[in-house]
Amino acid sequence: MKVLVVGPGGREHAMITSLLRDPHVSEVHAAPGNAGIAQDVPVHPLNAQDPEAVVALARELAADLVVVGPEAPLVAGVADALREAGIPVFGPSREAARIEGSKAFAKEVMAAANVPTARAVATTDLAEVREAFERFGAPHVVKDDGLAAGKGVVVTEDRDRAEAHARECLDAGGSVLVEEYLDGPEVSLFVLSDGTHVVPLLPAQDFKRVRDGDQGPNTGGMGAYTPLDWLPEGFTQEVVERVARPVVDELRRRGTPFTGVLYCGLAVTAQGVRVIEFNARFGDPETQSVLAMLETPLGSLLLDAAQGRLCEERELEWRPGASVTIVLAAKNYPGAPRTGDPVTGLDDAAAEPGVHVCHAGTVRNEAGEIVSAGGRVLTVVAHGADLREARERGYRGIRRIGLDGSHHRGDIALAAAEDRVGLPPARPAADGAPGSAEQPGQSAAEEQA
């Protein structure tokens, strides 16, 4: 099987690393890729949001499967164009991808499918924003309704800051969602779907705030780990039954079946599991940790989803132990990152036991050096017998890498490794509690996107 992976980042590099381990995959190509991906597979420069260009490349390569990584090409209709051309594609249609492209649409689908979530108000009116602040109280959660690369959310006790974010979104011509805050830790669960059937992967947890202790502004994600041994028994199956399957069923009922991976962003609250958000693709950096644990051949699994052959009874195989992913970010990220700085020590990092490096924002300069080209430059992915060992290996690896002005969090998976992740005590739902959603909305801990 020949596979084309569309996208430039760490998520795509992680998928390519897994695809290369699949004995059924004979060849992998990437477009546009990055400097690290180019060391592993052939890369093809193109605009990933141009459906015609992606179709032309897939035909030229005679690809048996195209995997679309980022959200923007999905919302641009790349998967639709591939399907119309008769090329198997793992990724939802433009209409189905609205589950991520519009947070208001996601809330509408959740309401129709009776999926538990937070109360929220979707609006283009600043007066309604202020009314929602009064109604839901602090902390205030304000989300840009459209795609925001993981940084369109403000969660704050400061009402002035929340209102300023809402005004910024509205002034740009968009709409916002104001949502009640959900207590409890957050969990990411990827669920593969062929439009009818759903197969969950391992739950993971990511770290959105830029600094240790969940301080500072939101980012696209500064690290992740799996498994989550602190989750209650039966968690994954509960999410499949109460969240993923109802949403997939509702989208199919609407005539827009969802084929791809449904990213369920969840809060484990005192009143049970609540949906924070959906994404229509694998999340970055959780993908790096989850796929590092997957032993089931990835290419065959994605092709089955693309061709409507997923079997819900299929038992996926996972490596024992744990995986931790640490993001190395450029100076000034998540603001305007500095780019063009040489990255050194990559081979030394990869030589550490259980460690590999996924590139995200990297290119080669005219001198042939690998240099930074984005905010999140790369991820160090480490496997170990448990979280403690995976953390130790990951941080040994990232210390080997040199990038002037770079920064990373030092507490990825620390609380879990020290058994300090706590769940809020259960309490019965009250009238108007999360799950009795009114208009489209969301939100829990500070890691929304």
UniProtKB/TrEMBL annotation:
Keywords: ATP-binding, Ligase, Nucleotide-binding, Purine biosynthesis
One annotated GO molecular function: ATP binding
UniProt key word Lipid biosynthesis: no
InterPro entries: ATP-grasp, ATP_grasp_subdomain_1, PreATP-grasp_dom_sf, PRibGlycinamid_synth_ATP-grasp, PRibGlycinamide_synth, PRibGlycinamide_synth_C-dom, PRibGlycinamide_synth_C_sf, PRibGlycinamide_synth_CS
Region ranges (Disordered): 418-449
Ranges that cross the membrane: none
Cross-referenced PROSITE patterns: ATP_GRASP, GARS
Residue ranges of every copy of the ATP-grasp domain listed in the record: 107-307
EC number: 6.3.4.13
Cofactor list: Mn(2+); Mg(2+)
Catalysed reaction equations from the record: 5-phospho-beta-D-ribosylamine + glycine + ATP = N(1)-(5-phospho-beta-D-ribosyl)glycinamide + ADP + phosphate + H(+)
Record-stated family: Belongs to the GARS family.
Protein name: Phosphoribosylamine--glycine ligase
